[in-house]
């Protein structure tokens, strides 16, 4: 497996951080950080360089060249392994907490004996962190909040991890199986995996025993397993009862309760095995969900809507909203190339777009700004536009020249208006100063929304599932401002983000705000995330006309005028 320059740079950066946690020589720390930067900026693959050629790079000496060579070959090096061995494993995740760097981790460890998230939370609650020189009560409460959020957030899986585990289970089950629960409803995070199957329980349990980490509970009606550290519930159903079983296990709980109420009003009792007619005592069973909905006098409710947020009333009246589906998507509006921190070349992206049957892909590399290495300045952006024009001459999928510009802490953008004006579409996003209070963050983003060159606000809350909480932004005000200016809000489809929440998507849609779905792809496989974004749009009750990237190219660009 070939390591990308970016991956090699990450390993070097990690070594630098671990050296700092270990309190080692700061020149050595700096040498690794500088080497990471150099490797990140190389034009060709680092794997093509010999040790001698590596050594010829300024700032990379013989010892470092040897280590880089080792990293390219094996993904790690003895120095990194030594550091990992010397560092309590619970300390390493602390490096990812917002506002906590290697220096802080070192001091928490050596001065307070903190070794993991739990001991950090305990130290902060006991007011021991503020006692450290230079820390104080404010920093202590920031750290406590970050540590508590991180702990809570890792309790749920992101959808890609859930899909991967579900696929392993489905492949092992000797018969037909269907995903149910929150995963089927397209939620952005998943508590546990739910699967319904008509396969024989005995044989299935034996098969599951072979692939699961452990069996939590094993039976003829249902079995629970642990797979890759997470829980999955497998429910056995007869084909004749599959409709009510799938309906029950898909939920949500609130939707199920409503449905039972509807049944009760009509003199019936609904459970996972069928529909009991109270008067006659007859039990009707249903092989499909459609049959159950029909018997209740409802049109079938798509899984993404099943939250008891008004969909039941609509379904009883037979007029559910027309929801966007994957087939209506004509392009991706957020893709990074190797011009910034992505791995794909522009021709690669055009090829991928063609394979997907897309009409267009908006190239949105990072603009130069705080915290982004490789960001494009105005000159490189212009060069990229020429390259895009060249690629477009023989591409079936049109590349659009866009940019992902940073919304700086005061709302100004990290590129001048003249550079933005030349873009087909501009995505503006927050990538720094995440900790601003609600009012500052909201005003900051409204300045960007009101900028006439900004077309789309990228990942509006900047959350990273399981890793960084949403900013304090007041989404009501953002939606109002987007509605007033005609600026679109992004539904970021990356499973790491899935940013906006469905309730805000629906609110934006209801206020006439356009939504754009972008994968934020940095590598080939990331482009597959579009379906998660579509599921989220459906959860926000969006139809095709609410989504910018269902428009044909000409209409999309007209929206920019
Ligand atoms: P999760 O796992 O937290 O992401 O969310 P779900 O919706 O997958 O919830 P889960 O796994 O606890 O249960 C799966 C489905 O089973 C749920 O969507 C509806 C149904 N269910 C679970 N508990 C109850 C309950 O107490 N009452 C009713 N009516 N249905 C329930
Ligand atoms: Ca579940
Ligand atoms: Ca469950
Ligand atoms: Zn971004």
UniProtKB/TrEMBL annotation:
<dbReference type="InterPro" id="IPR002008">
    <property type="entry name" value="DNA_pol_X_beta-like"/>
</dbReference>
<keyword id="KW-0832">Ubl conjugation</keyword>
<dbReference type="GO" id="GO:0008270">
    <property type="term" value="F:zinc ion binding"/>
</dbReference>
<keyword id="KW-0227">DNA damage</keyword>
<dbReference type="Pfam" id="PF14520">
    <property type="entry name" value="HHH_5"/>
</dbReference>
<keyword id="KW-0239">DNA-directed DNA polymerase</keyword>
<dbReference type="InterPro" id="IPR022311">
    <property type="entry name" value="PolX-like"/>
</dbReference>
<dbReference type="InterPro" id="IPR004013">
    <property type="entry name" value="PHP_dom"/>
</dbReference>
<keyword id="KW-0237">DNA synthesis</keyword>
<dbReference type="InterPro" id="IPR027421">
    <property type="entry name" value="DNA_pol_lamdba_lyase_dom_sf"/>
</dbReference>
<comment type="function">
    <text>Repair polymerase that plays a key role in base-excision repair. During this process, the damaged base is excised by specific DNA glycosylases, the DNA backbone is nicked at the abasic site by an apurinic/apyrimidic (AP) endonuclease, and POLB removes 5'-deoxyribose-phosphate from the preincised AP site acting as a 5'-deoxyribose-phosphate lyase (5'-dRP lyase); through its DNA polymerase activity, it adds one nucleotide to the 3' end of the arising single-nucleotide gap.</text>
</comment>
<dbReference type="InterPro" id="IPR016195">
    <property type="entry name" value="Pol/histidinol_Pase-like"/>
</dbReference>
<feature type="domain" description="Polymerase/histidinol phosphatase N-terminal">
    <location>
        <begin position="331"/>
        <end position="409"/>
    </location>
</feature>
<dbReference type="InterPro" id="IPR010996">
    <property type="entry name" value="HHH_MUS81"/>
</dbReference>
<dbReference type="InterPro" id="IPR043519">
    <property type="entry name" value="NT_sf"/>
</dbReference>
<keyword id="KW-0488">Methylation</keyword>
<dbReference type="GO" id="GO:0042578">
    <property type="term" value="F:phosphoric ester hydrolase activity"/>
</dbReference>
<dbReference type="InterPro" id="IPR050243">
    <property type="entry name" value="PHP_phosphatase"/>
</dbReference>
<feature type="domain" description="Helix-hairpin-helix DNA-binding motif class 1">
    <location>
        <begin position="52"/>
        <end position="71"/>
    </location>
</feature>
<dbReference type="GO" id="GO:0003677">
    <property type="term" value="F:DNA binding"/>
</dbReference>
<dbReference type="InterPro" id="IPR003141">
    <property type="entry name" value="Pol/His_phosphatase_N"/>
</dbReference>
<dbReference type="InterPro" id="IPR047967">
    <property type="entry name" value="PolX_PHP"/>
</dbReference>
<dbReference type="InterPro" id="IPR037160">
    <property type="entry name" value="DNA_Pol_thumb_sf"/>
</dbReference>
<dbReference type="GO" id="GO:0003887">
    <property type="term" value="F:DNA-directed DNA polymerase activity"/>
</dbReference>
<feature type="domain" description="Helix-hairpin-helix DNA-binding motif class 1">
    <location>
        <begin position="127"/>
        <end position="146"/>
    </location>
</feature>
<dbReference type="Pfam" id="PF02811">
    <property type="entry name" value="PHP"/>
</dbReference>
<dbReference type="InterPro" id="IPR003583">
    <property type="entry name" value="Hlx-hairpin-Hlx_DNA-bd_motif"/>
</dbReference>
<dbReference type="GO" id="GO:0005829">
    <property type="term" value="C:cytosol"/>
</dbReference>
<keyword id="KW-0915">Sodium</keyword>
<keyword id="KW-0235">DNA replication</keyword>
<dbReference type="Pfam" id="PF14716">
    <property type="entry name" value="HHH_8"/>
</dbReference>
<keyword id="KW-0234">DNA repair</keyword>
<dbReference type="Pfam" id="PF14791">
    <property type="entry name" value="DNA_pol_B_thumb"/>
</dbReference>
<dbReference type="GO" id="GO:0006281">
    <property type="term" value="P:DNA repair"/>
</dbReference>
<protein>
    <recommendedName>
        <fullName>DNA polymerase beta</fullName>
        <ecNumber>2.7.7.7</ecNumber>
        <ecNumber>4.2.99.18</ecNumber>
    </recommendedName>
</protein>
<dbReference type="InterPro" id="IPR002054">
    <property type="entry name" value="DNA-dir_DNA_pol_X"/>
</dbReference>
<feature type="domain" description="Helix-hairpin-helix DNA-binding motif class 1">
    <location>
        <begin position="92"/>
        <end position="111"/>
    </location>
</feature>
<keyword id="KW-0808">Transferase</keyword>
<dbReference type="GO" id="GO:0140078">
    <property type="term" value="F:class I DNA-(apurinic or apyrimidinic site) endonuclease activity"/>
</dbReference>
<dbReference type="InterPro" id="IPR029398">
    <property type="entry name" value="PolB_thumb"/>
</dbReference>
<keyword id="KW-0548">Nucleotidyltransferase</keyword>
<feature type="domain" description="DNA-directed DNA polymerase X">
    <location>
        <begin position="3"/>
        <end position="307"/>
    </location>
</feature>
């Amino acid at each position: 497996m070939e390591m990308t320059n970016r991956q090699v740079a990450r390993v070097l950066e990690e070594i630098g951080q671990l050296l700092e946690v270990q309190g080692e020589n700061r020149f050595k720390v700096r040498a690794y950080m500088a080497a990471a930067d150099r490797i990140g900026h190389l034009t060709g693959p680092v794997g093509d360089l010999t040790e001698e050629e590596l050594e010829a790079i300024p700032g990379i000496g013989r010892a470092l060249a040897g280590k880089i060579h080792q990293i390219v070959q094996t993904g790690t090096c003895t120095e990194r392994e030594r550091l990992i061995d010397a560092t309590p494993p619970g300390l390493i995740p602390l490096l990812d907490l917002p506002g906590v760097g290697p220096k802080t981790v070192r001091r928490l460890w050596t001065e307070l004996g903190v070794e993991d998230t739990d001991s950090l939370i305990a130290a902060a609650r006991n007011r021991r962190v503020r006692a450290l020189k230079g820390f104080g009560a404010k920093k202590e409460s920031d750290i406590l909040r970050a540590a508590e959020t991180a702990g809570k957030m890792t309790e749920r899986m992101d959808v890609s991890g859930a899909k991967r585990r579900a696929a392993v289970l489905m492949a092992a089950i000797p018969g037909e199986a269907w995903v149910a629960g929150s995963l089927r409803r397209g939620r952005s995070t998943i508590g546990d995996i739910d699967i319904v199957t008509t396969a024989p329980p005995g044989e299935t349990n034996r098969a599951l025993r072979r692939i699961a980490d452990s069996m939590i509970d094993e039976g003829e009606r249902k079995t629970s397993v642990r797979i890759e550290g997470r829980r999955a519930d497998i429910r056995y159903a007869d084909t004749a009862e599959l409709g009510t079983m799938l309906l029950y296990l898909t939920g949500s709980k609130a939707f199920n309760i409503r449905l039972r109420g509807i049944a009760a009003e009509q003199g019936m009792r609904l459970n996972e095995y069928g529909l009991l007619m109270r008067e006659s005592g007859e039990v009707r069973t249903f092989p499909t969900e459609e049959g159950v909905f029909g018997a209740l006098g409802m049109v079938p409710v798509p899984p993404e809507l099943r939250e008891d947020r008004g969909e039941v009333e609509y379904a009883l009246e037979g007029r559910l909203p027309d929801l966007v589906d994957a087939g209506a998507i004509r392009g991706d509006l957020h893709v990074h190339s190797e011009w910034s921190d992505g791995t794909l070349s522009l021709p690669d992206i055009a090829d991928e777009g063609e394979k997907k049957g897309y009409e267009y892909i908006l190239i949105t590399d990072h603009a130069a700004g705080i915290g982004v290495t490789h960001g494009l300045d105005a000159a490189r952006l212009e060069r990229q536009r020429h390259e895009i024009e060249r690629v477009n001459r023989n591409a079936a999928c049109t590349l659009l020249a866009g940019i992902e510009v940073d919304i700086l802490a005061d709302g100004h953008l990290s590129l001048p208006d003249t550079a933005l004006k030349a873009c087909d579409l501009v995505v503006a996003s927050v990538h720094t100063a995440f900790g601003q209070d609600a009012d500052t963050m909201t005003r900051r983003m409204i300045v960007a929304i009101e900028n006439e060159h900004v077309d789309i606000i990228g990942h509006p809350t900047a959350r990273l599932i399981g890793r960084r909480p949403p900013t304090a932004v007041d989404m009501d005000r953002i939606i109002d401002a987007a509605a007033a200016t005609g600026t679109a809000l992004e539904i970021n489809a990356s499973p790491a983000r899935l940013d906006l929440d469905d309730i805000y998507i629906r609110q934006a849609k209801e206020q006439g705000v356009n939504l754009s779905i972008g994968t934020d792809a940095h590598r080939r496989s990331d482009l597959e995330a579009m379906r998660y974004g579509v599921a989220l749009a459906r959860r926000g009750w969006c139809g095709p006309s609410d989504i910018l990237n269902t428009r044909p190219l000409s209409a999309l660009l007209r929206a920019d005028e």
